[in-house]
Amino acid sequence: MNKQIVISAIVGAILVLAITVTTLSENQAEAQTTPFPSREKVISVTGEATAAVDPDLLVITFGVETQEKSARDALVANSESMTSIVDALNSMGISEDELSTSRINIYPIYDNYRDPKTEKYTQELIGYRVTNTISVETNQLGKAADIIDGGVSSGANRVENVSFTLSPQKQIEVKDELLGQAVINAKTKAENALAPLDHKIIGVKAVTLSEFGMPPPIPVFSTAGSFAEDASFKSSTPVFTSDQDITTTASVIFLIGSN
């Protein structure tokens, strides 16, 4: 009799345990398939900041073009002109670190003509043309006109670019300042929007910063033509700078709650 009671109790306990496990499994499955809806309240705002910044970097690119019957003579003549330009710029306070040369090219020059006997067109090599460029990057913005005059008078026969822009150091300073202002602007917008709704900011969920885009350099003038012998080119022409408007944005998702 006692054995039957014990066996019945054991069987009953097993059945209760099995039912309990089954119930828990069903509840867990139901919890996984029916997620609890989020009660998080947010507001997404995009802030903006703009600044008018004075350029602090002057960029002037000179071109030197020489033509001779041989490639060697053309290179020598070009090198002599470049040396004269560098010497002239150094004499007016432009250091070697503010100068760079690039894009040296050599082109053969052909004369096309028609042979009167065969009446066929043919080419004859008549010489070589060498082109080279030298760039000035300086913070001495007030010397723009003097630098142009000095470069042209010492051998440059092309002025390919004159522009004003921001130095890398100033770009970093402006970027850091504008990003902070853009986030503050986003917060102000959110607070103004929440005030009539009787809500307030209680936290920040996410911040997305826009890429800091620099505006293109401000060109003073750009020409690919030669003016070394052009009487219409007037030296000592005043060159003025102007502000650059730089804008950046920041998107912020704020957590909000009722007052």
Written description of the protein model:
The protein has 259 residues and is an alpha+beta fold. The protein contains 4 helices and 8 strands; from the N terminus they run αββαββαβαβββ. The protein has helices spanning 2-33, 71-91, 144-153, 168-194; strands spanning 42-53, 57-68, 99-114, 121-138, 158-165, 199-209, 218-221, 244-258. The strands form 2 sheets. Strands 3-4-2-5-7 form a 5-stranded antiparallel beta sheet. A hairpin with a 6-residue loop joins strand 3 (99-114) and strand 4. Helix 2 runs antiparallel to helix 3 (144-153). The model is unreliable at 13-26, 28-36 and 222-235 (pLDDT under 50).
Specify the structural class. alpha+beta
What fraction strand?
Answer: 35-45%
How would a crystallographer describe the biggest sheet? 5 strands, antiparallel
- Quote the CATH topology of one domain: Alpha-Beta Plaits
Question: What is the succession of H and E elements?
Answer: HEEHEEHEHEEE
Number of strands: 8
The average pLDDT score comes to: 80
CATH homologous superfamily designation of one domain? Protein of unknown function (DUF541), domain 2
Indicate the CATH architecture of one domain: 2-Layer Sandwich
Helix content: 25-40%
What CATH first level of one domain would be assigned? Alpha Beta
